[in-house]
Amino acid sequence: MQPINPSPRILLGPGPSSVPPSVLRAMAAPMVGYLDPQLMRFLSEIQAMLRQVFQTENEWTFPLSGTGTAGMEAALVNFIEPGDDVLVLVNGYFGARLAEIAARHRAQVETLEHPWGQVFTPQEVETALERKSYKLLALVHMETSTGTLQPQVAEIASAAHRHGALVVLDTVASLGGTPVAVDAWDVDIVYSGSQKCLSAPPGLAPITVSERARRALESRQTPVDVWYLDLPLIARYWGEAHAYHHTPPISSLYGLHESLRLIAEEGLEARFARHRANAERLWEGLEALGMDFFVPRECRSPTLSTPLVPAGVDESAVRRRLLEEYSLEIAGGFGPLAGKIWRIGLMGYSSSRANVDLLLTALKQTGDGGR
Fold first, then answer.
1. In terms of DSSP bridges, do strands 136-140 and 85-90 run parallel, antiparallel, or are they unpaired?
2. Do 257 and 287 lie in a common domain?
3. Is 168 left (phi over 0), alpha (psi -120 to 50) or beta?
4. What are phi and psi for residue 200, nearest 5 degrees?
5. Euclidean distance between the first and final Cα of the chain, in Å?
């Protein structure tokens, strides 16, 4: 049995993104106990830096031990009681996952649906909210299955609050790569994942919870029906009490700390500008190769692009050659988009001009080979 020694890859898919060397070095730091004073200082710094990235003052802002889906489930299960009415906006795979998880926790789920890739307007959401009183409205900011960035989140949240609903927002593929302004948008429960635009390894799910949502949680009539993702219990460890809940993934927290430090060092506005500039360079380059896009430019995410596979091209053959010849990974579509699009992520550390130019050059070389 040989030691694990994978070949390096340039990760330009929908996640995970490539990890900066300093993040990997941080994860090799010595292990400490879960109540070590050094770790407590690191945890406080992680919370402060996460608040900056989420653009919030929420006290409950911390990473959960688990992937982005753990954040999704925590955002729902803590606020849903059996029989609660929940409205989910579905325009892709992860909106559908929100609806499925809510239903599994015995919510009465209704969906407002669009074809994959289309976005919602505040007016149509308000019309849907007028049908009945919903406990939660849930939506995805950047739908990773399509590359669609939902605009007017603040207006949608305002409509939800006028009708008494809390707002759950999925930012797994947008946080750290494009603006997520939790307080300015007045959204209540927002979660993400460590492995995409934050450029830390998978395994942590940052979450932030508004005071409005905390009050709703305190008024539950039944206990949260999971223990591991019970937010009040987890918050006690991240708060001043540091009460034991579970052993946190300490090495992963080291890595997240360093990734957030790098974001603070770069500055949010500069980081957003970098993602936008690299995305536009990619779009222009792909258009020069004769490609069209699944998502219109006005709703296109700077963190994930979805060009249409040209007619006659075997998209999987192109991806295979990119991996074998360039150690470069992009992804294909799935569900109704299987074989029709590529999903190209420029997230966090992976979002660089050098990576864009390498991919465009590689596509020129491999495109004909996929016909």
1. parallel
2. no
3. beta
4. -110, 165
5. 40
CATH code where residue 113 lies: 3.40.640.10
The residue from 221, 245, 264 where one domain ends is 264
User: Pseudo-torsion of CA 94, 99, 102, 103, nearest 10°?
Assistant: -140
* Residue 90: domain span: 21-264
305 in a structural domain: yes
The answer on 40 and 88 residing in a single domain is yes
| Summary mean pLDDT of the chain | 96
- Average pLDDT on 289-310 reads 97
CA pair distance 95, 360, nearest whole angstrom: 31
Distance CA 116, CA 335 (A): 10
One domain for residues 235 and 248 = yes
Pick the closest to residue 331 from 143, 321, 341 (CA basis). 341
Instruction: For residues 163 and 307, state if they share a domain.
Output: no
What CATH code is carried by the domain that includes residue 339?
3.90.1150.10
Per-residue pLDDT tens for 81-109? 999 999 999 999 999 999 999 999 999 99
Q: What are the tokens at 296?
A: 């219109």
Residue pair 165/107 in contact by the 8 Å Cβ criterion: no
CA separation (Å) from 216 to 3, 136, 164?
A: 50, 11, 11
Whether 2 is covered by a domain: the verdict is no
Cα–Cα dist 86/166, whole Å: 10
Cα dihedral 46, 47, 49, 55 sign: positive
- Show the CA angle centred on residue 298, arms to residues 293 and 299, nearest 5°: 70
Token pair in block for residue 63? 């990473």
Average pLDDT, integer, range 248-273: 98
